[in-house]
Amino acid sequence: MFSMDLLLDAVVTGVLLGCFYAAVSIGLSVSFGLLDVPHVAHPAFLVMASYAVYFLNESYDIDPLVAGVLITPLLFVFGLAAYRIYYETFERRGSDAAVRGIAFFFGVAFIIEVLIILHFGVDQRSVTASYIGKSWRFGDMRIPLRLMVAFAVATGLTVLLAAYLSRTFMGRAIRAVAQDEEAVRLMGANPVRIKQWAFGIATAVLGVAGALLIIVAPVDPTLDRAYIGRTFCVVVMAGLGSMTGTLIAAIILGVAETIVLTMFGASWAPAISFALLLGVLAVRPQGLLGRR
């Protein structure tokens, strides 16, 4: 029987899980939500970052969160290069860039998956840290410490990125390009360089997000397939480009998933993201905090 105690456990766990979903989705909120780049390889980049964290943890005994921060500059450069290739090959050539770009990023995701399999194999990989495997007890409730760490780091990451986009010159330039690229060009700025910088940031935050991914649960090379629906659901449901909306939508998804998991079992949980997405789009097509 589904009791109030189980409901409370599901809600608390769902909020923590939702903040984690926000961390793994916030980069996509920039690349897809603000830049209109059909970045379907975002989850593959995320898994790639997790394996880089695993390598540093396994080889040099570096804490996963520290490892995530260490690989952030490399991911930023990787993002700069990825956007430049996408722009020169597709976006620069015309209006069908979105359609061809989807094929491009699907190809990139497939290549990343194959390279991970060739180097690490198909087995699941996990990391070690003092906070993994432990839990906090609040009354009758036990909360995994790894989820608490993910909650704190994910919330901080979301707040920092939102502040960067709203309070810094480059952040405001990124939002300006998203609203009116031609106006930015007329003001003497280079929209392509601004978008390239933004895509680099969207990729760089995956260093920390990838660390959280492998802290929360073991990873395997095909894990990106499980997150492509969740991340796009969060970004679209939030309202394209809304950092605050991303956090709210991710928490809604996390709570809904854990309640469905508790009440109906694991087989129903993966479908909840698409059900929520369809429901929000039917009532509010611009998303929870999107502009009309």
Structural summary, described in words:
The chain is an all-alpha fold. It has a single domain (about 5-285), classed as ABC transporter involved in vitamin B12 uptake, BtuC, CATH 1.10.3470. The protein has twelve helices and two strands. The protein has a two-stranded antiparallel ribbon. Helix 1 (about 5-35) packs parallel to helix 5 (about 145-165) and helix 3 runs antiparallel to helix 8 (about 190-205). The longest helix has about 30 residues, at about 5-35. The chain is globular. This is Branched-chain amino acid transport system permease protein. It is a multi-pass membrane protein. Keywords: Amino-acid transport, Cell membrane, Membrane, Transmembrane, Transmembrane helix, Transport. One of its GO terms (molecular function) is transmembrane transporter activity.
